[in-house]
Structures are given as structure tokens and as C-alpha cells.
Amino acid sequence: MRPGRPPLRLRFLYLWVRGPFPLPLFLALPLFALEWSLLLALFLRKTQALLRGKASRMPLGAVFALRGLPPLVLARVEAEGVGVTVGLW
After folding, report:
1. Containing domain of residue 17, as a range?
2. Does some domain include residue 46?
């Protein structure tokens, strides 16, 4: 592994909803899908800026920032018996 680069293991953003229903709802989004979406948006924005004759920087380090974090809960909300958890695993 090269120094300064985040590890390339499979990571997920997850949504977990618990409530009065019998089974909890669990949705997982692979982190690479979010990263590729951000890269596509940055590429389109840079292309648009270049066509207008302006220079723009691409913050590639910010796209891969979530890879450096350990597994953690990003947000946890509970109201009226329904709990919603969003995290990184």
C-alpha cells in the first residue's frame, strides 16, 4: 500500500430504521458508488468551467475523505418510538 492513500477495502454507508414494525429496515450503499458519483459531478463541473474559459480545482482528497474514517455512527435520531441510524461501516 502506498503511504498517504486510504485503504481500498469495501466500505458502506448504511441506514438502519427501527420502530414498531416487526422487522427493522436496513439499507446499505457501497461507498464507491458515492465516490464515483462525486467524481462524475466534479468532472462535469470542471468540463463546464473549461468550456467557459475558467480554471477550477478538483478537490480529490475530499472525495475520498470517508475512506480514512473508522466505522462509526454519523447520525442517530429517535422520535416517537422510531429510531434512525446513519453510519459508516
Report:
1. 12-88
2. yes
